[in-house]
Write a structure and sequence with these properties.
Layout lengths: L1 H33 L12 H7 L4 E6 L19 H6 L2 E9 L18 H8 L10 H18 L3 E3 L3 H12 L5 E8 L9 H8 L2 E5 L22 H13 L2 E3 L5 H10 L5 E5 L13 H9 L3 E4 L3 H4 L4 H15 L4 E3 L16 H10 L4 H19 L9
Parallel strand pairs: 1-2, 2-4, 3-4, 4-5, 5-6, 7-8, 8-9
């Protein structure tokens, strides 16, 4: 009997330690292992490159930093993006995307829509609100609130919802302020929970970009990494129409090529590919065909060049710059931007603080000053000025 009591006590202690580990240490361990800065960062920037970098508008179309249990006001011990690093890298603009479902065992070739969900476990470990256990929409709102809280907490960060907000940001920066503008987007419209009215709710919460798919097929249509390779569904078409009517920019970074073609056939509105590579440069499943990229560009779209190996084929700044060069030659410089996928469970050779290394590498690779200005953020700024809602939200 005594032995049984000792065994039960040991089981209770082990269980208690397991629970303690799950809720206190596991999230930071997963975050640090998932978002490492590794690979070849290239040469340290010269004084001339650093000086030129400070004259640029720097902007990035995709970071999943709100997914993780980190204080974005502080320089993190791990991860790739936070406010201090954005300021150090001279960023003017950062799109923060919300990840609401990610299938366990995810890969770029095949994922089932009903695969066990990584984000459910991460949300539980990070003690997200109870509503996020069953609602992907609630997960998007919760992550969005983290970015809005940063806007409240820091005078060096402001949430951009309109072109007027953007113009105010740029005026402050031109006056010498060190300040970053953040925007909100979703990673996949499974975040709608199948309800078109949630487009309005996300818009009201500040979301200005929505991607249609992520790693799996959903109610809107096929994913580049799903099972069907299907195009836009009737629900997807209705969602696209409503997004555009509300002034929400559409991101097709993970959509099947047929979904991309269907959206282009449906609307003249330019699309965003927030984080990707060019298949002709890096022949991986993650990258859609050059022909489809050219079609996106012909319709005024913007393509964010990814920083991780599945997009660029190597973990190196040189590979990122080579992808940029390929993209410029393929679709034109006005359609190429930065699409890091920082904090998106990918390893990258630089973090936000090291953005000047990209500028230096582009200068070393004989990019013109105009090309560098455009790709590093000028194109993103112009696109947002054209496609964000124009005025004060109170008048919209």
């Amino acid at each position: 009997m005594k032995l049984v009591r000792i065994s039960m006590t040991l089981v209770a202690v082990v269980a208690g330690l397991a629970v303690l580990f799950f809720f206190t240490l596991a999230p930071s361990i997963v975050g640090s292992l998932s978002n490492q800065v590794v690979g070849d960062p290239g040469e340290a920037p010269s004084e001339a490159s650093l000086a030129f970098h400070q004259t640029l508008v720097v902007g990035d179309l995709h970071a999943d930093s709100a997914l993780w249990n980190r204080d974005l006001q502080e320089y993190g011990e791990y991860g790739q993006v936070d406010l201090p690093r954005l300021l150090e890298g001279n960023f003017a603009l950062q799109m923060f995307t919300t990840v609401t479902k990610s299938p366990r065992g995810q890969n770029y070739h095949h994922n089932t829509a009903d695969a066990p969900d990584n984000i459910s476990l991460l949300a539980l470990a990070q003690r997200w609100p109870a509503a996020t256990r069953d609602s992907l929409f609630a997960r998007a709102l919760f992550q969005g609130e983290k970015i809005k809280a940063l806007d409240t907490a820091s005078e060096q960060f402001t949430l951009i919802r309109t072109a007027a907000d953007l113009n105010k940001l740029m005026a402050r920066r031109q006056a010498g302020e060190k300040i970053v503008g953040g925007l909100l987007g979703t990673e996949g419209s499974h975040a709608l929970d199948g309800n078109l009215d949630n487009i309005d709710h996300l818009y009201d919460a500040g979301f200005r970009m929505m991607s249609l798919q992520h790693f799996f097929d959903n109610k809107l249509g096929g994913s580049l990494h799903g099972e069907s390779n299907a195009g836009l569904t009737a629900f997807g078409a209705a969602a696209v129409d409503k997004m555009l009517a509300r002034g929400i920019m559409i991101d097709v970074a993970h959509s099947s090529e047929q979904v991309v073609l269907d959206v282009i056939a449906r609307t003249s509105a330019p699309l965003i590919v927030s984080h990707s590579g060019f298949k002709g440069h890096c022949d991986r499943k993650r990258n859609i065909s050059d022909a489809t990229m050219q079609l996106i560009a012909q319709h005024g779209g913007l393509i964010g060049v990814g920083f991780w190996s599945e997009a660029a084929c190597e973990e190196s700044v040189a590979a990122i710059v080579a992808s940029m060069r390929y993209g410029i030659d393929l679709v034109g410089v006005e359609h190429v931007a930065l699409g890091s996928d920082w904090d998106g469970s990918v390893n990258t050779p630089i973090d936000a603080a090291d953005a000047a290394r990209l500028t230096h590498a582009m200068r070393t690779a004989n990019f013109s000053d105009d090309e560098i200005r455009a790709v590093m953020g000028g194109n993103m700024l112009r696109f947002l000025q054209m496609h964000l809602p124009s005025g004060d939200l109170n008048t919209l």
